[in-house]
Amino acid sequence: MKVALVGNQNSGKTTLFNLLTGSHQKIGNWAGVTIEKKEGKIRTTDCDIIDLPGLYSLNPYTQEEVISYDYLLHEDVDLILNIIDATQLERSLYLTTQLLELNIPLVIALNMKDLADTRGIKIDYDLISEKLNTTIVSISALKKTGILDLINVIKKNKFKDNKYSHIYDHDFEDVLNEVVAEIDGNHQRFVAIKMIEGDERFDDGVTASIDQKRQALKKTYNRELDQIVTDERYRYIELLRDDAVKSYKTHRSWTDRIDDILLNKYLSLPIFAVIMFGIYYLAAGPFGSMTVDWISGLIEQFSGWLSMRLDGWGASPWSHSLVIDGVVAGVGAVLNFVPQLIILFTLISVLETTGYMARIAFFLDRVFQKVGLSGKSLIPFIIGSGCSVPAIMSARTISDETEKRMTIMLTPFIPCSAKLPIITLFAGYFFSDRTGLISASLYFFAITVIILSAFIMKKFIFKGKVSNFIMELPNYKVPHVRYVFRDVYLKVKAFMTQAGTIILLASIVIWFLLSFSLSFEYGVSPDQSILSYIGRVFSWIFYPFLGDLSWAASVSAIQGLVAKEQVVSSMAIIANFSSEVDTGILIFNSQVFQFFTPASAYAFMVFNLFSAPCFGSIGAMKKELGLTSSMFKAVLFQTGMAWVLATLVYQISTLIGVLL
Question: How far, in Å, CA of 481 to CA of 502, rounded?
Fold first, then answer.
């Protein structure tokens, strides 16, 4: 049996999927798109279950909604498992009434019944089951109750066949049945409704007879056809609600009370600023710095132990140098910052699971509207704090093409996890007494630059009307430790995987270029290496914000195009070769990086924050923008903006003595 899991966003769908499948699940991509596809086996059964992207109705607009729509209509689905939120019954039932029009059996998983009871919402679920002629199983995905009952219903086929009850008035039903009679194929009732609504996807099947019936309906109701269907659905849902909801204790929920503060007209932005400052202070401040020192000490001990082992095994000088000075120094320099990433990912995940991130999108919408964006753009920006690749891809949910292109170009400006090692390294050394403040300032600097860039782009490049932003604000929830842990684990795993592949390969390349001269002589001075000559070619580009023709800093910055983490890795390898003291010495104590001042350090962070992202993100931009020329324009815009901002920061701060 193939089961399709369908439901609104924030209804607990993903939580239910994880409970039903346990470890029997796999992740992939839908054919032709990069949107995540989840499927698995329901525990103790042979049933395959597919977690379809969340949607509110079968009137698809976004890429995710189209995927769910196409799957239900064109795939062989044996059962629809429709999860609905008991606290948002009217909203949830709109989709349910559409799903019941498909020729597919349906079981309703009524989630959050306990929360509805707590709020004084008393619902007669048996009556709803009778009226809709479908099977309802009450569950709590968060508390893991009712899950075995739901599995048992699916496993033993103990559900109704869904002999659909009429929800429209008699005049409409009569015409609808006449249209159904003229349709061949599957899902006749659903297709008939779509034809009556005037859905262009079904125009080919509209005969003269069906069109005549549509026009008659329009005259009878004196309204647009799609509006007739919508009104009739809500009329039926309201009648069902009036019959099924026996009592309702009106009181203001904790969500309402908290929103009075967090969504306050005057307090929302200051509170957001304090929260984000706190996150970066904890991740990159004194506590985060302590974790870096601890990991650094462990890696240094490992490096010393491995060095002795290699000597004992009789390793050649070049192989010893490759392993210790190349691989361990390069990869280890990035792994130092894993604890800080764990702190950052954990705090961001907590904000997401509590429901606060949705509020950020809501109250920043009015700011973004003024510069040509909307609250929709904030979702990619939030995802971008983890990684720019999925953030850029998530911009496809923005229906307005202009707004989507602007969002794709601006999303890499957000400090992602790969940029945190750069920020922490420089802020921790040059601003040790205010590391958290400096780190947080770059985050707010990024938001400011995004807003200003969007304003300029909208004013002179992309002109048009800003799209409307409609978003459901979920109820506040206490973060579930298991799901926060899983989210953080997956993000850290992705970071470690990159450190073990791209950074490993790049570290070996850097070691090779640093170990050999142009005549391929091994063991030369770093100043005579192949890498130094490459760096000298580009050093003049970086001089305006570094204040020095540094080949070492130049090649490290260029390495950021491969992976932003590689900036720190490259600096560690170069410093290791250039230092006259033992391995593990601070990068900035080496001769090649001693030129850095607080002003040039901050400017260097700014450049790496806003310059073109890694190759993976550039590839994602090309895919989403559609044209290679558009991708190159985005890369030039980002890198040009980074150079200008870094130069301004360095020159102005040097001129007036700020940061010095």
Answer: 31
0.70 exceeded by pTM: no
Q: Tell me the HSE value of 308 on the side-chain side, using a 13 A CA sphere.
A: 5
3-state SS of 568-604 is HHHHHHHHHHHCCCCCCCCHHHCHHHCCCCHHHHHHH
What distance separates the 2 farthest-apart alpha carbons in the chain? 93
pLDDT digits (tens, 9 = 90+) for 560-616: 877 787 788 888 888 876 654 333 346 888 888 888 999 999 999 999 999 988 777
Mean pLDDT over all residues of the chain?
A: 80
536 contacts 528 by C-beta, under 8 angstroms: no
pLDDT at 466: 53
Rounded to the nearest 10°, the torsion over CA 467, 472, 473, 476 is: -150
Q: Which long-range contacts (CB under 8 A, 24 or more apart) does 69-73 make?
A: 71/4, 72/4, 72/6, 72/99, 72/102, 72/104, 73/102, 73/187, 73/190
Neighbouring CB atoms inside 10 A of 319's CB total 12
| pLDDT score at 159 | 83
Distance CA 568, CA 553 (A): 10
Sign, CA dihedral 641-643-649-652, equals negative
User: Is 419 a residue whose pLDDT tops 50?
Assistant: yes
Compute the residue count for the chain.
660
Residue 473: which H helix or E strand, with range? none
| Two structure tokens written together for 630 | 């558009």
Report the amino acid identity of residue 70. D
What's the rounded Cα separation, in Å, for the pair 642 and 205? Answer: 54
**467 pLDDT exceeds 60?**
no
Asked if 241 contacts 89 with a C-beta cutoff of 8 angstroms, the reply is yes
Contact, 11 vs 82, CB < 8 A? no
CA atoms within a 13 Å half-sphere pointing along the CA-CB vector of 8: 24
Q: Cα–Cα distance between 453 and 634 in angstroms, integer?
A: 12
From the list 49, 239, 224, 259, the residue with the least C-alpha distance to 128 is 239
